[in-house]
Specification:
The chain is α/β, with parallel strands linked by helices. It has 13 helices and 12 strands. The structure holds phenylalanine (PHE).
Length: about 350
């Protein structure tokens, strides 16, 4: 963990060991250049506290780029509750309350909301102890908004790769049909896509498949499954030197944060001729909705327009990347860096 702290380019990590639940809590604040930090809170079992810290740091950096990418006056941060074992519902609620106390103690330096393992119910529990939580004052569940952004991203990807944004008849593989994956499947089904889905929770996959007419594949078979667009909508760091050579898709566009295990994986995908749509752009819909509706006083129609503009942003990113012969991730990072260098809108 010392090494991770030394190497990180972020501002600070607030850390706590929770003895009752034998859990580690990390609130990573990556950058407050554009404003107070905000990002979701993630709760899951990690094989070591170190893995939890690593995830928090990477996710917080992703939030910095995400907020800069949509030009919102918000900084990047993320909360990770790293469990050592699965907890029962009561233990979990108590832990989330203590987590809420910790968020409150930062007095607005970090505000949070839903993420993997922290659904709308858990957000309510955190909200018992802190005001610095998004999702309780109008925006509700960010999942469907994130799904709308990913759907729009896929249309941009399809235009780039297949020449038309129409997804009718395209084969789309969705990995993870949770809070984002499930509403995404609904949109894809309505657009006439041919859906293949997988989820660690097989029952969940069958349930969604029943609703949208999808074929369920085993989680192990995901990387070899031939498809037009692969949509990772579960955990991150799944694209690496082992999985990329196995992929049989033309493009990757999903909601999971940090899909690439290391920066070189962007080049690996390029070398294979697979268009990788940068995750922190694709999945900004939830963040836009939560912050737009609950902090920036945007109307729902404005939020929707902003989420849909993700498609245009991606079209520009793909074209920049092509001109400079670089990966779309590099092009997207460069755009975000320009916003960060400029600073918050009021200072511009
Ligand atoms: N966790 C989601 C994300 O990473 C949504 C979220 C954004 C939650 C910002 C809270 C604050 O985009």
């Amino acid at each position: 963990m010392e090494e991770l702290m030394r190497r990180w380019d972020g501002e600070r990590v607030v850390m706590r060991y929770d003895a009752d639940a034998d859990a580690w809590i990390f609130i990573a604040i990556h950058s407050t250049r554009l404003g107070d930090a905000s990002g979701g809170s993630r709760l899951r079992v990690y094989s070591s506290p170190r893995d939890g810290l690593w995830d928090a740091q990477r996710l917080a950096a992703g939030m910095t780029y995400k907020w800069a990418g949509v030009d919102f006056p918000v900084g990047g941060g993320k909360g990770v509750i790293a469990l050592s074992r699965a907890l029962d519902a009561t233990e979990c609620d108590r832990l989330l309350e203590r987590y809420g106390d910790m968020v409150e103690s930062l007095r607005g330096g970090f505000s949070t909301g839903a993420d993997l393992g922290v659904g709308p119910e858990s957000v309510r529990v955190i909200g018992r102890r802190t005001r610095y939580v998004f999702g309780l004052r109008g925006a509700g569940d960010p999942g469907p908004w994130t799904a709308l952004g990913v759907f729009t991203s896929m249309r941009a990807v399809a235009r780039e790769v297949f020449g038309s944004p129409d997804l009718e008849g395209s084969k789309v593989l969705v990995q993870g049909v949770g809070d984002v994956g499930a509403p995404l499947c609904q949109r894809l089904a309505a657009a006439g896509a041919n859906l293949v889905i997988a989820d660690l929770d097989r029952g969940r996959a069958e349930e969604v498949a029943g609703l949208v007419e999808a074929r369920v594949v085993d989680v192990q078979a995901v990387y070899e499954e031939p498809c037009d667009i692969f949509a990772p909508c579960a955990v991150g760091a799944i694209l690496d030197e082992h999985t990329i050579p196995r992929l049989r898709c033309r493009a990757v566009a999903g909601s999971a944060n940090n899909q690439l295990k290391s920066p070189e994986d962007a080049e690996r995908l390029m070398a294979r001729g697979i268009l990788y749509s940068p995750d922190f752009i694709n999945n900004a819909g939830g963040a836009i909705a939560l912050c737009g509706l609950e902090a920036l006083n945007m109307a729902e129609s404005e939020v929707e327009a902003k989420v849909l503009s993700i498609g245009d942003t991606l079209a520009e990113i793909f074209s920049d990347a092509l001109t400079r012969c670089e990966s779309p991730v590099r092009a997207a990072e460069r755009r975000a860096m320009q916003v960060l260098e400029r600073g918050p809108p009021s200072a511009a």
